Amino acid sequence: MTQEHILRAAEALVKEKLARDSSGHDWWHIYRVVQTAKAIAAREGADGFVCELAALLHDVADEKLNADPAAAQRELEDWLAASGTPAAQVGHVLEIIGTMSYKGGARPPMRTLEGRVVQDADRLDAIGAVGIARVFAYSGWKGRPIHDPSVLVREHMTEAEYRDGKDTAINHFYEKLLKLKELMNTPYAKQLAEERHRFMETYLQQFYAEWEGER
Ligand code: ADP
Ligand code: NI
Question: What is the 3-state composition of the chain as percent helix, strand, coil, each rounded to the nearest 5?
């Protein structure tokens, strides 16, 4: 198996698994993360094969997308073991996937350059024009409102309000998206994040102005 064969097989696996997702983790999210990871890897001198394979597989065992995440994780491990990927790289890819998710809290930094690259690529897909599209797609999927001026920042909500679904798409910008710029690992991702971040700030200004009929 050449690296190219393994990557194309991984692509087929992911397309099949994520084809019907509408939560913002569909195949095209994977496609964008792969494209961005490859671009960052080339600039930062990271291993392109490991970055692309990890980017392709990073969401297949995600707990949000699998009724049985432990089974999905085992399936992923079995698939990799049988894929022809050398054992050291299998270990590296699994480590990246297992440690890259944001999950709110401060996590230890990614151990390897390839991990930092793929994490940056995934985070970049949550900001900018595409990131804005994904927030609203995800909120709709969850049945949440676009915006409620009385619910601006989650820190100001009680637990009950939050559980009752008062979380809004606009609130998610403050909860997560506007924080991602500072979390980029690599210089090239920081550069990309700057422009995407500015785009979101401009978007929010326009949004509030339109909300009040001012523009
Ligand atoms: P990851 O890709 O790291 O798994 P998430 O699953 O948390 O990230 O987010 C996937 C997409 O869904 C992102 O674009 C994110 O902005 C959006 N999203 C996640 N949580 C919320 C939320 N509470 N409200 C709106 N959008 C959300
Ligand atoms: Ni992702």
Answer: 70, 0, 30
